[in-house]
Amino acid sequence: MERRLWLLSWKELKDVTRKVRFVALPIGVVEAHGPHLPLGTDFIIPNYLSTVLVEKLNGLLAPPIPYGVTTSLTGFPGCLSIEPETLRRLVFEVLRSLRRSGFDKIVIINGHGGSEHVKAIVDAMKQAWLELSIKTLLINWWVHAARKSKEILGSIGGHAGTEETAMIIAIREDLAKTNLFDESQIFLVEEGIEAFPVPGSILIYDPCDKAEIPPKEACMKFSNEVVEKIAKVIERTLRGWEVQSSEYRT
Q1: Can you give the CATH number for the domain in which 215 is found?
Q2: CB 153, CB 172: distance < 8 Å
Q3: What does pTM read for this prediction?
């Protein structure tokens, strides 16, 4: 079954609406990810995860939202940012459109951790529930995968660090220009210190963590474990919503 919404005709979509359990909506940003990873890393990873998860859990894949809120890395070329309110409205209006097409359970896989970016998404989710009864689940994949990153890769890694590098290698190895990796681009983000724009395109948030190129075998294992871990959360949430809806009807 074709699970990419944009490749279906409207007649096909009507049939799919009755068959799938949820819609996956990948969200990210376009910004510098070290000298070795693509600018689109933050939506490439969520789009990949969503593609695998809709097959695994019987969902439908919506087109990714590649634009978000990013300001700290504007010192590097290729940073494409929108205002928080623009993102909030965009996400809400996409959710509203999906509701009109018959979908009321949306799983958002997010790839960018900026506080304003995440808040805009959450605000849109709240509005979608309160005004349109759309159930939404937000998964910031790297946060949920932090323990697996530590176990398999030996580090959490931060922005453009070990875990994002591992995922890009697992998804499309040719996009990871490991020969361009440059340790001088690593910048430690410490509490109580702000730099705008940040002077490095690889960011770590703990001096105990490191940014490095993991071996391919570890990258593949990490990617698979991330999928399984997220799948469990989605399954648990969908079942909870089903029970909740059943109880409301009685």
Answers
A1: 3.40.50.10310
A2: no
A3: 0.96
Q: 3-state DSSP call for residue 160? A: coil
User: Which residues, in sequence order, are CB contacts of 20 under 8 Å at separation 6+?
Assistant: 3, 54, 58, 59, 60, 103
Residue bearing tokens 């474990």 = 225
Owning domain of residue 75:
5-249
pLDDT of residue 250: 46
In this structure, the dihedral spanned by the alpha carbons of residues 233, 238, 243 and 245, taken in order and rounded to 10 degrees, is 140
In whole angstroms, give the CA distance from residue 42 to residue 47.
9
The structural domain count of the chain equals 1
Distance between CA 115 and CA 245 in Å, rounded? 32
pLDDT at 246: 76
Predicted confidence (pLDDT) at residue 105 exceeds the cutoff of 90: yes
